[in-house]
Amino acid sequence: MILPIVGYGDPVLRKRGEEITKDYHNLEQVIADMYETMYNAYGVGLAAPQVGLSIRLFIVDTKPFSEDEDLPKEEQEQLAGFRKAFINAKILKEEGEEWGFNEGCLSIPDVREDVYRHERITIEYYDEDFNKHTEEYDGLIARVIQHEYDHIEGILFTDRISSLKKRLIQKKLQNIMEGKARPDYKMKFIAKKGR
């Protein structure tokens, strides 16, 4: 089932997600719905707070990045096959040079900015079968994970840009809060909640 994506300004996007257990109600269905929602919106990652659930769960599928012909063949193949759910994730280490990449977010439609993140991470998490993993990632996969991990910490990519850039996008952010954004996927805006 395609879920509405929560828009910028909703308090759920600012809460630190709660850890869950393998008995979390309908977990398998929640994950399936999140994938369907993400694919419908042409995203590469989606965190539970973005569908109104304040829990430590996010999904990633970097396949769309694999179509970038400027990338080495090996990296294209790695991106094409990377699809995972991360439950109760904890980034243990961020290492390497910080590098910029133009990021966007399904909860903040029509806003893109360069964000600097570390090139390599070590993360501990549970998969959808509640098996525990500690893994290292780099490049675009690490970046997508860091972006989604921020969501379960109550952080948005707009928190990682300069105050000047924030002022320049203020009107767009205000429009999203007022429900004036018109993405081609289902959204739930804070201004329209009570109506």
Structural key phrases:
195 residues; alpha+beta; Peptide Deformylase; 5-stranded antiparallel beta sheet; two-stranded parallel ribbon; 26% helix; 31% strand; globular
Provide an overview of this structure:
GO terms for molecular function: metal ion binding; peptide deformylase activity. The protein is α+β, with helices and mostly antiparallel strands. It has one domain: Peptide Deformylase (Alpha-Beta Complex), CATH 3.90.45. Helices cover 26% and strands 31% of the residues. The protein has a five-stranded antiparallel beta sheet, with helices on both faces. A hairpin with a 5-residue loop joins β5 and β6 (132-138). It is globular, with a radius of gyration of 16 Å. The model has no long low-confidence stretch (mean pLDDT 95).
Number of helices: 4
Residues in helices, as a percent range: 25-40%
Q: Please report which band the strand proportion falls in: under 5%, 5-15%, 15-25%, 25-35%, 35-45% or over 45%.
A: 25-35%
- What does the largest sheet look like? 5 strands, antiparallel
CATH superfamily: Peptide deformylase
Estimate the mean pLDDT confidence: 95
- Rg for CA atoms: 16 Å
Please identify the structural class as seen in this structure.
alpha+beta
CATH class: Alpha Beta
Q: How far apart are the termini?
A: 24 Å
CATH fold annotation: Peptide Deformylase
Strand tally is 7
CATH-level-2 architecture: Alpha-Beta Complex
Residue stretches low in confidence (pLDDT < 50, at least 5 long) are none
| Strands ordered across the widest β-sheet | 2-3-4-5-6
